[in-house]
Structure formats: C-alpha cells, structure tokens
Amino acid sequence: MNYFVDLSAQYFIQPTDIKYDTFFAYKTRQLDLLKLDKFLDYHLLNYYGDNLAEFSRFLNLCIRKHDDKLLSPKHIQTINEWVSLKEKQQEKQTQGLLDNQSYKTKKGKLKREAQDKLTCLNQEQTVLLMYYLQKEKVLLKDEYLTDMDAGKAFEILTGYSQHTLRQNLGKFHLFHNKANLKEIDHLLTRLKIAIDKDLKEK
Known about the structure:
Blueprint: H1 20-30, H2 33-47, H3 52-66, H4 73-107, H5 123-135, H6 147-158, H7 162-169, H8 178-200
Helix pairs in contact: 1-3, 2-4, 3-4, 5-8, 6-7
C-alpha cells in the first residue's frame, strides 16, 4: 500500500499543536525587528482572541525555553517591550471605562418632578418643541434621526425620560393645544429678546 503526502497543502500551526512554541520561536527569529510588533498583534488577535494575559504567559514561557537556542537578545527585548506597551494600553482602556462608569454613577440619573422648574417647558411642551425643531429642520428629520435617538438626546438635555419622550413624539398631536403652544411661543419670544439684546451690542 502506497501513501502520498500533499506537500503543497498549507497548514497553519495552532497553539494546541505540540510543537507550536518551537515553530513560533523559529518564525520569530527569522523576522525583521521592525515587523515583529505586527506579527505579535496578529497572533494576539487571531490565535488568542485578544487575551493578552494568556498570550503574554505563552511568550514568557517560550522565551524561557528557547532564549539560549533560537531567540536573539534583541528579539527578546522587542517582545518584552511589546508586552509592556500592550499592558499599558489595556490598563489605560480599563481605567477609561472605570472613570466613565464612575462618572455615570456619581452623576446619577436625574428624576424630574412635576413643576420642578428645572427647565422652562414641561414634558408635553418639550415633545412639541422637538416636533417643531424637526419640522423646521433645526434637527434631522425622521429618516436620519429615530425617535429613540431623539429621546436619548433630549433626556440628557432636559432630564425627561427618553422612553416617554420617544413614545410621545409619535403622538405629539395629543399635546397640540393652546396652553402648550403659548408656552412655546413665550419661550421663542424670550429667545428673540435675548438675541436682539446681544445684536445691539455688536
């Protein structure tokens, strides 16, 4: 019985293969130092699922096993520098997430009360204002700005619930009464007075 081996077939060594560390060391030794960072980036992402701790542990063991045989001091130094840089980048990203979460926790979510006067318009009037701003193209129209996104934006700006704003924006006509329209009209009058005053000073 004859056996044939396809020498043209390509096989990519996997971390689970027995000789993976040896092939990795040979490949690393052949690389130009300027290409080593991209090589390590590739392995981190494609073979270790961006798990820096696991890949870093492998690199330490690989260096310990092959440093006196396959890897040059310059390659080892470059690998260690790459690991150090990646760890600093990861720490910075983690700290950024923690700072952002801390800010959100510290800031908290404002709970509006009826007649709290934190903003000059109540929730219904705010919905009407959103409608008119879209109608007059101050804000993007529906095809570019969903009610959900508009609700999120105005929740940040006014403290009113994004879900209520989103739901009410679709039925703004229910709030289209004389009292609400007068409040918006008064707001626009105050804005006009403030703008006129600043114009006179220019």
